[in-house]
Amino acid sequence: MEELVGLNAAERLFLMIPIYRVVLGVFVLLILSAIGGIWLRRRFSGKDGTGGTGFEGEGYVVTAASGLLALLLGFTFAMAVDRFDERRMLVIDEANGIYSTYLLAQTFPQPDSGRISSTLLAYLDHRLAVSRKSPIDQKPGALQLDRHLKAQLWRESLEATRNLRDDVASTYLQTAAQTLEVGATREAIRLARIPPFIHVVLWVFSAITVTAFGFSYYGRARWLGLCVIIFLQTLALALILDLDRPTSGIIRESQWALEDVKHRLRDTPPSEFLPNNQTSAPEAPGGL
């Protein structure tokens, strides 16, 4: 797929698996790990799993495994939250850039301002459309359309400022270039995710930790403690995975800033920015 050109085979395969299937698989893995830990306890301590103490210092193993898992979960969660915040701020930056470019374009005479305004509206609609879908769900040709709109906007900007060498033209070109740059940065950030290998390592550490808990816990209340541990670990892993999926997860960065700019541009067409003496031609005095 052209939209996934920046991803390797493992990342493409990982993105094609829905979140609920991954979470369900992790949940089943942890349950099997708990059953495995209980089986090992019975294997070494008797049929009921309550005889003996397993081995000396088993509590330290459980504490060390859970502490290491907590450390890994903390670092990975912080990484996912930082990327989420960065994606959210880029939405605001792109919205401000598009609106500033639109306002500056109204300083140009017609038909340049009208062409740039129409292209900006089409570009804004396209940015909203691609922001709601994951790269694997994009329609064929979405990448070509994005490139075409960017090239068209820049070409029209150069045509409008070709014979202008003032501060307004310079400011406009700089703002338009920054807007296109922010859009490219957003696309790169959406593809820059936590590597699948890190997710797999977290799942393996979680399975080992639950196995250690299953081996260490015994008695009638062991299943209650194991269920709490399995639920909390599955919830933490699911939260990290959801934050790492910008478009297919439950937690998504809001597109409200772009939506607000879209309504503003629709409500203020280029004709609204014309001086009063240009909105209508003055009537000629009668008889002259």
UniProtKB/TrEMBL annotation:
Give TM regions: 19-40, 60-81, 196-217, 223-243
Q: Which InterPro entries match?
A: DUF4239
Query: Which keywords fit this entry according to its UniProt record?
Result: Membrane, Transmembrane, Transmembrane helix
Which Pfam families does the record cross-reference, listed alphabetically?
Bestrophin-like
Q: Where is this region: Disordered?
A: 267-288
What protein name is recorded for this chain? DUF4239 domain-containing protein
Originating species = Croceibacterium selenioxidans
